[in-house]
Predict the 3D structure of the following.
Amino acid sequence: MKIGLEMHFQLPTRSKLFCPCPTAPAEPNHNICPVCLGYPGSRPSLNRKALEIGLGIAQFLDCRIEERVWFSRKTYFYPDLPKNFQITQYETPLGTDGRFELNGRSIGIWRVHLEEDPGRIRRVGRPGEEIAFVDYNRSGIPLVEIVTAPDLTSPEEARTFIDQLVIELRALCGLEAQDEQTVRVDANISVGEERVEVKNVQGLRNLERALRFEAGRQSKLIAAGKRVVRETRRFDEERKVTTSAREKETEEDYGYIGEPDLGEFRTGNMLRALDLKETPLARARRLVASYGIAEVTAKQLVLTSSRLTDLFEELCHHVPAERAVAWTTGPISGNWSTLQDQAIWPELVQIVKADAEGHINDIEAKRRILALAGVRQEEASGTEDDLSKLISDYIDAHPEVLADYRRNPKAANTVIGHAMKESRGRHSSKEVVEEVKRQMERRA
Amino acid sequence: MSAPSTYALIQYAQRRHLAFTETVDGLDEGRFHFSAKDNLCALGFQARAGSAVLEGYRPPFDATPIHRLKAAGGQLVGKTTMDEFGFGSFSTNSAHGVPLNPFDPDRSCGGSSGGAGAAACLIPGHIALGVSTGGSISGPASFCGVVGLTPTYGRVSRYGLIDYGNSLDKVGLLSRSAASIAQHFGTIAGPDPKDPTSCAQPPLAGKGRMPSSLALPREAMENLDPAVRKAFQGALPVLRGMGVAVEEVSMPSLRFALPAYYVLATSEASTNLARYCGMRFGRREEELNQHFNDFFTGVRSEGFGDEAKRRILLGTFCRMVGFRSRYYLKSLAVRQMLIGEYRRVFQEHDAVLTPTMPFLPPRFEDIRRMTPLEMYLADFLTIPPNLVGMPHVSVPCGYVDGLPVGMQVVADHWKEMDLLELAKGWEGAFLYTFPEVRP
């Protein structure tokens, strides 16, 4: 099975790609101007920040980057597209021939390019009597499109690929955990010779479902000696099946020409000025290689907090890595809200070091760390039973959590958050997560 | 008899020669007067670019050249008539009146800035903002007997210009004298962050250097009306008398300019015109309760004139997969080749001299009998400098049966002030005549 993806990530710029309109959420048709409405006489000027971020992504994905890049017009008529052409990149994408490492395997990246988002259409009213409203707030929002080679071999792998890429790109763009970011994905999937495009799927969970269905559908067709038709299919979320949207015997002709209003951009100086941050998963790979720790531990560290990982690396300079892991994922992460203060790190290091060198024992080291975190002794002596009761009481009081959990395991986060807060750091995040998962699984 | 007032002349130019689509109700004291071609956006006026599809479009901003002239003490007194979106050489493809030549109202003003040419001719001291894509300033300047400056591509901001071909469009000036153009050109030139293509220009020279050696390509002397050839040749001794050498050269690539221009200009135009679909601005008479494809097809079928439709079809064809490399990409290569050919000439000469138009201002009845291709060929002398984005000026150089003949001088990129220096010198040696006007 071969799966290739076309992903659109919204870039976190303050203003739109070609005009000064804000990108922040607003009332419909509030963040608009003559440029993003395509008024006659208006013209685009490029948001350099978007180009910088896009180039950073292309470089991160190990792409070949052209020295000169320009934009193109992709012409098609649609009510959400104010100029009836989209400004995108055609001949000179920011990057080509890149790759992304997915669990030790290299997934090819065909191209990375910048483009503007169209507006959004909302239909209201009864079927047959619908009224279409167009909101142009989204018109001109900067997107980066990433097209992969058909190197993914299963719907699960496609899902993992997207999850991991999103983690990396969010960190690369400087997005914080609470920042929202739109990711839209179309997929091409072929079980046999002919490929089918699955488009406009809402959400990554549905994309995985759509691909699973499509893989099954194509396999059955082939097993029955029938032909898979090359076409675009959409996913019916209610019935959980894909249905034919249009047959695609030839490529659509968008009549690309260069966008003469923007000119050419030289990437050399911009690339040299780029200072790419180490992304979380790349860092995890480095931690595994440098310190010999387990991959799952490394991922847990980088996904918990980059500062916690910093402390881990600091500890590794003084004590064996397994000790650094034990302390950072244990009492330190359990009391992270106070221990993240870098001013007390030297003292933390001294305690862990004293333990590793046998000057004090584990119990004493833990006591000192908790004292440093300002947790009172008696609270520090909390037992597993407390935690277990805390969690089961909460689930009893909030039965809807279980229902949510059956639909989406992320619902457990509410319980985890509650338990972390109530136990005030007496338990490490690892202990809390494990206990919550154990109880939720048992009850669900 | 005292001279008619400027306001009376504006009214006369509008009523009798259809030079304007709209004018102001009165003139402000102490401000100079200028007009703008109707494809330049201005507050307080519709901007319809000669097209019915833009009926009622009132832009919420001033085009940068208009903004700058206003800031320099100018009053925008009206919008001038033009071919729809600039598509034409005679201003006959206009939904808002066809301007009539100041020298003979049975004849064309040229195009597509025909109204601008007529206004510049009929109103002394008037500055008309024109726009050229393939000769739309030189052509009307020649037929209306005025001076027309087409700047280097990227010299004047296009912010607020309703696009025809973005890689070719240039905002310039028409007026009775090079001196008044020189006075205002510095105001409209210069970088504007709202038009990135204007931001790569070198500073405008304070005073130009008078070109002393002109190249006359022999290819430009073919296919001319004998009367035009004779009038043009009569100008050469006057130039030599000014100390300007004129030498014949060969520029064989000139003949590729016209086809390459029509491919590029219509390719860009066909995308620019995609936005006119009855949503957000302009004409909307179609029923909303139908499929979007039917809706916009209705708007466009009714709103666009024949020439606009022809150019949309031509441009869309040139962009299609399978034809794109044969037409669009090849034309881009022709443009580069032609720039090279001009540069070679500029190694030996300061500028290139040709007649501006191959014939006298034609009668409307003759224009009606012309095929589209014959009309396109009328621009074979103005298209080359436009395609390569080089500045050029057209000045009157003779009169035949009371009708003006123009000559055009092309200089290397950014050398507008050299051209104006030559045009000012020319005005010292050759006397322009203008039709007598009695409003």
Remarks:
- Chain A touches chain B at residues 34, 37-46, 73, 75, 77-79, 82-85, 134, 251, 253, 255-258, 260-263 (CB under 8 Å).
